[in-house]
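User: What would this chain look like folded?
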Amino acid sequence: MSRVKDCATYSEAKREGDKVVGDLVKSSQAAVLSPGQTSDALAALQRLQRFYRDTGQRVSLLAGISGYCEAVARLNGRTLAEAVDGFLSTAVMVRRKDLAEAVEELIATEEPRTRAADGRRAQLSPKYAYNRAIMLRRFAGAFPDTAVSDLTKDDLDAFISNLADLKSRSRNGKPVASSKARNHHRAAIRQFLQWAVRKDYLPVNHRLAEADAMRPEHGNEAEIEFYTPAELAALLEAADGPEESSMRAMIAIGGLAGLRTAELLRLTWQDVWRVENHIEVTAGKAKTRQRRLVEICPALAAWLEPYRAFTEGQLCGLHEITWQQHFVALCEGTRVEVKGRLVPVQRKPNWLRHAFCSYHFALHGNENLTAQQAGNSPAMVHQHYKGLATKKEAEAWFAVAPEQPANVLLLAARQATVTQPS
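Assistant: Here's the prediction, encoded as structure tokens.
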């Protein structure tokens, strides 16, 4: 719509023209909009105001139009609504969930996996689940009234940093600050974050595990300690015989075959006798869930010979805590000579297995063979058990046999009969 004004003189016309130009320069551009354009602009501004009231997000008219135009230009003819519908059909909408509530939900969800049915091994170790619950509750307690989706990398950095004074127990029972304990917390938190993604409490691209403090520590490893041949002999001689319990068989297999305590407690007599001259650790009973055959050396065979009548049932029907209590009592009541005087044998957790791995590697010099027998990786054997014992000490360990040598001779005769060509 044009406006025409008659001016009597040139100077009057110039002044009127300069005024119009000035209005345009001062952004008084409404004068150049058509009535339809003015109506659209006002309606758009009203729509943006409603959007602000509904979402709390303030968007200018220019930003809204620019974003729309950029999106449509990239859609190759498709509408923006089509693009949004396609995204929503595949994208996961993150739900807000209180951190403490989420941790309790995970613990409750995992609890059924700690129960074994029909004597089978549980999918998840109850001890592991118990320890993980302690760590996750400690984590949740550090961030009260916090949603899982509100966690930041800084939060994880602060939490791990505050574990600097966390105390754990070393192999000698003394409390020490443990990088291993902090690594356990890191592993528990990673598992929780993965579970939170599956539950839509975190977006897939959350990147919290990339927090600087979540990198595993490589702390100084505690020195590997283990029993001596004299201590093993004393424990075996002091243990109850087959007429009372299988304590002696458990110790013999632990020290001379290297089974883990948990594997020993799952072991049955069928596993001991099923494969000749070998103990079968089935996949369901092995820590790695992989079957392995462990050779029965002559000394171990001699200790097991009196148990030939035991053909069914578990070697030990005790709970692990009760078994450990029996073992502690056995150690306290057993004496060995140290520097000319008799002293009790120390109760040394996992030291039977440590002894087997150390002596077996020293005897054979083959980490692959030791790893195969122990159910470990060659790298683990080489890293932790290399150079801890001499071959002479290893020979003494695997020669610890009952005082009655007849059992050993009987085994040798049987082996010779089996291997003799027909």
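Residues 229-419 form a domain with the hpI Integrase; Chain A fold (CATH 1.10.443). If you want, I can go into more detail on any region.
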